[in-house]
Structures are given as structure tokens and as C-alpha cells.
């Protein structure tokens, strides 16, 4: 495989940029490459991208032709494509600090180089060199089963530890695994949990669109696998929720959905406030939404 060389824009490259990224009709109201955004949140980490989307418009080949081998180009049009991470992540095993970056790809047949540069507010050319980009690593282009007329970035899979970022144009795509930091869940001891364990009578307050049901239910709060735990079925229109409760503040807990006994999804939209008696035993709770409205009111039966 021959070495990629990155050079300043020549007159020919400038002409290519004009063909690629500007409208052929100055009076047209729709841009040749419309602006787009995409965002994904995983366990509190927000990943967002901004880019303009060139279309194929009959041109072939895209890679090795429109985007010439031996060039370093932002995958997009107009202003450089950007990606932003709200927390530190890893991309294909490479540590990337939280921040916003411009995105670049060095194109070569068979293997490309994906690069992030801390100077994010810049035009699609002139580009940085690969040595100037703070973070870069190889990526392997793949043949896609579906044709994509307009360049697209997407997150085709999301899991509890991260996501896959895919770039797809024409019949070619690249994919990169992004791993996010796991939320550290504080727990309580069995001795502390004993103050909350028991049978509770709960009034469900209709609170659209969060819940469309109102009525009374009974729940058990117990302590299992080091979690304060309950299975709560809120009315006939909701499947039971297998929940663990983790401390948010003194006598305040937030619920986390359990899947196969493991914490899977923190419910950011609600929290449980408990009141204790003089013996330190919890006797009442209110479950509030993030707008402070009440949707559950519980009192201890035993």
C-alpha cells in the first residue's frame, strides 16, 4: 500500500472543491449540501455531530474519484464536519478527551486514516496534515448492502457501554466503536436498606404523558444483590418495572431499570423522596418527576 501524502490545495483541488461543495445554480434556494445534525446520549455522555451533506448526483466513483486517494478531506461540505463529546471517550480503542473537534479522513485504497483536530471551526480547506491532527487512527472501508445517495452519519447500534458511529455514502461505509465512561452507582449497605424494606401502599397519580393511570397499588421494597429493589407495575397499561434504587441525596433515591439483574438504564425523569420516623425507619415517600410534579405517593404497611 503506497504512503498517503498530504499537500496544500492546488488549483486542481480548488476546482474539485467547487464541484463538490457549491451549488451550480446561484439562484437556487436549496443548498447543494444541506446542513445536518445528529446526537446520541449514552449513560449521560452526549455525542453530537454537525455537517453538511453532499449528494452523489450521478458521480462515480465517490472514493478514489470524487474524493481522491492521497487527499485529506473533511467528510462533508462547506464548513468542516465536527464531532463533540461531553465526556472523555474511546474511539476504536483510542482515548479521546471531552471536547469538540473537526473531522478529517485521509483517503487511500484499502485503508483510510480517521483524524480529529482540536481546531474545529474551520472551512473544509485548507486542511490540517495528519501529523497536525491531535488524534488519528486507521479505519477500513466496507462495502455496504444499501446505496446511500446523500452522505450520512448515524448511530446504528447503541448499548449500555457505547455506540457505533457509521459514515455511509454510496456503497461505502466506515464504522467506529465509541465507548463511554460508565456511571458510578453509589449503593447502600444492608443495614441502611433495612429502614426502607417492607410492604408499601402506593397511590398512582395520573400525570400525562408520564402515566395515564390513577389508582392504588401495593409494592414490596426489598434488598437483593446489594440493591434496594422493587418491581413496580403502574396500572393496566404498563409492564412491571424491575427497579433498583440508588442514593441521590440523603433519603432521596433515583430508580435504575434492571435487565437480567444488572443496572441498565437510569430513569432521569423521576426520583423518590422518603420520610423517616424518630426511629429512622422510612414511613412515607413521594415519587416526583423532573418537573417536581408528583406521580406516586407511598405509605408503609409494615
List key phrases describing it.
eight-stranded antiparallel β-barrel, seven-stranded antiparallel beta sheet, 302 residues, Lipocalin, 2 domains, 2 helices, disordered N terminus
Describe this structure in words.
The longest helix has 11 residues, at 11-21. The N and C termini lie far apart (73 Å). It is elongated, with a radius of gyration of 26 Å. It is mostly beta strands. It has two domains: 11-179, no CATH class; 190-300, Lipocalin. A hairpin with a 4-residue loop joins strand 20 and strand 21. The protein contains two helices and 21 strands. It has helices at residues 11-21, 190-193, and strands spanning 34-42, 45-53, 72-73, 82-85, 89-91, 94-96, 99-106, 112-117, 135-139, 142-154, 158-159, 162-179, 198-204, 215-224, 227-232, 241-249, 252-259, 262-266, 270-276, 282-289, 294-300. The protein has an eight-stranded antiparallel barrel. Strands 1, 2, 3, 4, 7, 8 and 9 form a seven-stranded antiparallel beta sheet that branches.
Cα-based radius of gyration, to the nearest Å:
26 Å
How many runs of DSSP E, i.e. beta strands?
21
What is the count of helical runs?
2
Share of β-strand residues: over 45%
- Provide the low-confidence segments as ranges: 1-27
Succession of helices and strands: HEEEEEEEEEEEEHEEEEEEEEE
Main sheet: strands, sense, barrel: 8 strands, antiparallel, barrel
Structural class: mainly beta
Straight-line distance between termini: 73 Å
Q: Tell me the domain tally.
A: 2
How do the strands of the widest beta sheet line up side by side? 13-14-15-16-17-19-20-21
Mean pLDDT: 86
Helix content: under 10%
